[in-house]
Amino acid sequence: MPKIAVVVGSVRPGRVTRDVAEWVHKTASERPGATYELVDIADFDLPAYDESLPPQYGTYEHPHTRRWAARVAEFDGFVFVTPEYNHSAPAALKNALDFIYGEWNDKAAGFVSIAAAGGVRAVEHLRQIAAELRIATVQAQLPLPASVDFPDYPAFSPSGTRAEELARVLDQVESWSGALASVRG
């Protein structure tokens, strides 16, 4: 059974991303096809990238990098929950992705995004980054427009169809995570 991380992609104080990630995690955990864990990048205190060698070498000198690498290595797939900052993903999420390399390879990922326009531009950038990290991104995604799903901002109130839309993302991430296990050997 695939093990999938629901990744909180923001470290900003007062972030709604954590609330959305908790909803994703709770919903996903009720499904029988995989196990899900919440992973908050804020818990890892990653500085701006500070390793001497590029991550493709897999030689990590700092304890924070080794801790992050070990955590990511545990998973077969990911659901990234991300806000959109200035038409892109948050710098903290990009930094967390950049810190390591092999631990991401040949795994699946889906996206839940948040912003005025649903965060789709952040996901566009994340898909490009994921491709370079050899993460296979699924077709389904769940954009959450602020005016629809946060009518009393910052309170998150998913609209009626969101659970079904999330289920499509989770179905694909679970399926691809299982299929890619044979690639990882």
UniProtKB/TrEMBL annotation:
Keyword Transmembrane (UniProt): no
All copies of domain NADPH-dependent FMN reductase-like, residue ranges: 2-144
Domain of life: Bacteria
Record Pfam families: FMN_red
Keywords: Oxidoreductase
GO molecular function: oxidoreductase activity
EC main group: oxidoreductase
Oxidoreductase keyword on record: yes
EC number: 1.-.-.-
Xref: SUPFAM superfamilies: Flavoproteins (SSF52218)
Name recorded for this polypeptide: NAD(P)H-dependent oxidoreductase
